[in-house]
Backbone:
């Protein structure tokens, strides 16, 4: 790990940055702002890499005594919000020193390096430790010195909200909103033929004549 004089120099650099006239607090993460991957030393464009994600940035350093107290809170926060990205931003340490300090502090979330405090300064950060909560579109939604109720409430709110850059659900136009006319009723099927009426009674002229009554026999002669 870095020698005591080296750590003192880094601490002095941070304190000098804090003591200088601070830049106004940034309202969002600039697309050009980068950190360094401690494993590959490659630059990481935070705004591009985490676009669409809720991000919690934990600014810390190996020499920061208060960071040792804040880190356990952030570890619990990361476990409580698995859908959020929690990133430890190490200020001023060499890669090996940062990894060793992260292990000693019990940091379980990913870390990135801000060797010359450029990222620290661009965000208008004023001291360590500092937590910065960033919404899905890269805007800074909350700053704090430690995890508090407002921090937790902000993360819950941001996780529940969709990204403003996400494609909006199309709103039906007046034409499409009008009810679709139901298909025309099919033509009624031909009416079933009515049962043939019973033949009408034939008119009187066509009725069979009733046989005339048989004449009564004539009485016998006296």
Residues:
């Amino acid at each position: 790990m870095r020698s005591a004089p080296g750590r003192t120099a880094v601490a002095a650099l941070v304190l000098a940055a804090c003591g200088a006239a601070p830049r106004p607090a940034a309202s969002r993460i600039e697309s050009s702002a980068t950190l360094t991957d401690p494993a590959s030393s490659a630059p990481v464009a935070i705004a591009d890499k985490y676009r669409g994600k809720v991000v919690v940035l934990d600014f810390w350093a190996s020499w920061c005594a208060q960071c040792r107290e804040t880190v356990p809170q952030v570890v619990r926060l990361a476990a409580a919000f698995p859908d959020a990205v929690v990133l430890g931003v190490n200020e001023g340490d060499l890669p090996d020193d940062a990894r060793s300090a992260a292990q000693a502090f019990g940091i379980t979330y990913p870390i990135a390096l801000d060797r010359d405090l450029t990222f620290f300064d661009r965000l208008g950060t004023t001291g360590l430790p500092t937590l910065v909560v960033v919404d899905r579109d890269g805007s800074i939604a909350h700053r704090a010195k430690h995890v508090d109720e407002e921090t937790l409430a902000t993360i819950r709110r941001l996780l529940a909200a969709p990204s403003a850059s996400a494609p909006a659900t199309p709103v039906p136009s007046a034409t499409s909103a009008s009810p679709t006319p139901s298909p025309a009723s099919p033509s009624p099927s031909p009416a079933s033929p009515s049962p043939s009426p019973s033949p009408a009674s034939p008119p009187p002229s066509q009725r069979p004549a009733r046989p005339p009554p048989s004449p009564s026999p004539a009485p016998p002669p006296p």
In short: The chain is about 30% helix and 15% strand.
